[in-house]
Amino acid sequence: MNRMPIQVQFEHILSYLGSKKEKGRKKIGLLVDGPNMLRKEFQTDLEEIRDILKDYGDIKMGKVFLNQYASEKLVEAVENQGFEPVICTSDVDVRMAVEGVDMIYNPVIDTLALVTRDADLKPVLMKAMEHGKETIIFGAEPGFSVALRNSADYVIVLRNGQYVPE
User: Fold this and answer.
1) Which of 32, 63, 89, 136 would bridge 154 by S-S if both were Cys, CB 3.0 to 4.6 A apart?
2) Per-residue pLDDT tens over the stretch 48-83
3) pLDDT tens digit string along 36-52?
4) How far apart, in whole angstroms, are the C-alpha atoms of residue 94 and residue 71?
5) What angle, 0 to 180 degrees and rounded to 10, lies between the N-to-C axes of helices 46-54 and 11-18?
6) With the CA atoms of 31, 34, 136 and 97 taken in that order, what torsion angle do they form, in degrees rounded to the nearest 10?
7) How far is CA 72 from CA 31, 66, 155, in A?
8) Nearest 5°: CA angle at 154, between 23 and 94?
């Protein structure tokens, strides 16, 4: 697949998020649903997500949730990207939701970014907004929950290997 350089591919997204800046940089808490989004068919790239968010603010906490079947190679790749891998022996969504609520009540975090397609995390987005946190959702087609799309301040969809703001 012939990919455009990141600079060109994300120019409109970066300007979009950059236009949303207020004084000072946003402090972002990022949570990634590994089993749901880190799949070959979606070509999800954590570095690209970080680059998109860089123009908007600073990632203060970044966690990638993986199930117990994640390979050591995947865990190592997550760590090499600068994220904290969280291995879950039970449902990833539950652990991710708990961490999301922790970030909502963390005064250091003012923006919650989720990378998922799963509507089970909609209550976390709603609670974040209720507490004055901005929300960004990264999802992918097919299967990106309409409920999630309608519950976040900013929506970015991965289509055919490219991120597109909605």
Assistant:
1) 136
2) 899 999 888 999 999 999 999 998 999 999 999 999
3) 898 887 888 899 899 99
4) 21
5) 40
6) -50
7) 20, 11, 31
8) 110
Give the tokens for residue 48. 């690209």
Q: Which two tokens stand for residue 2?
A: 């012939």
- In sequence order, the 6+-apart residues with CB closer than 8 A to the CB of 57 are 21, 25, 26, 27, 28, 111
The continuous run of DSSP H or E covering 149 comes out as: helix 146-149
**Tokens of residue 33, six digits:** 């649903």
Q: Please name every residue paired with 162 in a beta bridge, in sequence order, or none if there are none.
A: 159
Contact 88, 67 (CB under 8 A): yes
Task: With CA atoms as reference, report the closest residue to 45 among 19, 87, 80.
Answer: 80
Q: Which domains does the chain have, with CATH numbers?
A: 6-15+25-165 (3.40.50.1010)
Of 161, 143, 164, whose CA–CA distance to 41 is shortest?
161
Q: What is the pTM of this model?
A: 0.83
